[in-house]
Structure formats: structure tokens, C-alpha cells
Amino acid sequence: MNGGSGVSGRTSGVFVSMLGLLLPRGCAGCDRPDETLCPSCRDLFDQVIALPFPAAVTGYAYAGAVYGGNVRRAILAWKDHGDEECDREFAQCIVALARRALPIEGVALDGALLVVPAPSSASSLAERGRRHLMPLARAVAAYYRSSGLDARVDPALRIAARVVDGKAVETAGADQRASRMGGRLTVRNRSLSRVAGRTVVIVDDIVTTGATMRACAVALETAGARVLAGLALAATPHYDSDSPAS
Ligand SMILES: [Zn+2]
Q1: For residue 2, pLDDT beyond 50
Q2: The pTM is what?
Q3: Those residues with Cβ within 8 angstroms of residue 157's Cβ, 6 or more apart along the chain or in another chain
Q4: Ligand 1 centroid distance, CA of 209 (Å)
């Protein structure tokens, strides 16, 4: 009996996977049929939440939604469960936020405006098999180019692995990203010359305490950049502009 149920468990797992290929998808936030992100879930991302971000020239990072409920579900489906069809939806969300919160038409910049995605750890990159923030960063850069700015994406930041006894140590879990990376978030060597003297907009998915945004700003400013603001899909209610960046 036991052996039989194990086989049937595996069989039903395969069957469910096949159904996933055959059936139309549901909304990433609420499962409503035939939608990637349904209009009511999409509306949840249409806010402009200004988060104090003193390291930035504008003094703010902006988020388009409060992280929780269907917003959380949709972001996690996209970010951690490979729902790449959401790239387009979330790119539209972050561009709508940029247009409303950070319209910088006609601003005279010294050189290009750089759109820099917050970095992922090597283990998160390996798990996802892609840099999920790149489609969002590209969309933001395209929006600013359409405003007449010379805007481009530079994945300038990295999280250096912690080395213990000669071995790289990685820990998974986005929520701990900020706390475990203190001092290890740096500008890549190859981006140093591109970042120096440039104006930068940072793009992230979820702002939790704000420590990641601040660590990004510190690394970029150390390399000579001027951080204009941060943009994120969503922010938790736990954001704290005074908490340390480690
Ligand atoms: Zn929905």
C-alpha cells in the first residue's frame, strides 16, 4: 500500500505539471483565470508611496504598492517561482511609478542617467537562473530615454560572497539579504569608471527595512555617483529610514 501510494503521488505530481502546461494561466496575485496580472491586482501597484531616503538627492525612494496579500503573492510568483510572464506587467508598473514619482524631463545631467538594479546574491541568481530586475531596469531606462534623457542600465552592483576558511558562504532568503550583506555590497570593478560622476536611479523589487536601498546608495556614492532616488514595486509597512544599513 505504502509503496503504491508513493508511486501514485509521483504520478499525480507529473499530471499536475502537465496540466500546468495545458491549462490557461491564472492571475499571479489572485488566480483569476486567463490573466497574467488581473486589473484589480494591477491596480494595487498603482500607488506612489514616498519613503524617506536621505542618501538620495530627492530624499526619497518610491514604491508602487504596499507589500502584502495579492501584491506579495504576485511578486513572489514572479521573483521566486519563475513566472516570467509577469516581467511585462511589472515593467509597466515600475514605469508608471517612475512617470508619476520621478518625472525628470528636461533635467540637465552630466553624462548618462544610469538605472542600476539592486543586486542579488550568487545563490539567488543560481536559483532563479536570471536577473529578474533587469527587465524592470530596462523599462525604466527606456522610459527616461523617451523623455529625452541619455538613460541606460548598468548592473553595477554585486553582493560579494562571504569567505570562511577559503570557501564562499552564501545564505538564501531575500528577507535577510540586507542584514547579511553589510559591507559586502559593492560596485563591480568593470562598472567603476561608468558610475563615477553619474546620476543614478536604483531599482528594486521589495523595500523591507530600506537597508538594501541604503547599502546600494552607499556603494554607488563611494564610487562617485549621485543617487537621485530609488524605485521599487512594493514596500513593507516596516520601512525605517533610520535603521542601520547592516
Ligand atoms: Zn488578480
Answers
A1: no
A2: 0.83
A3: 116, 117, 118, 119, 185, 186, 187, 188, 191, 216, 219, 220
A4: 26
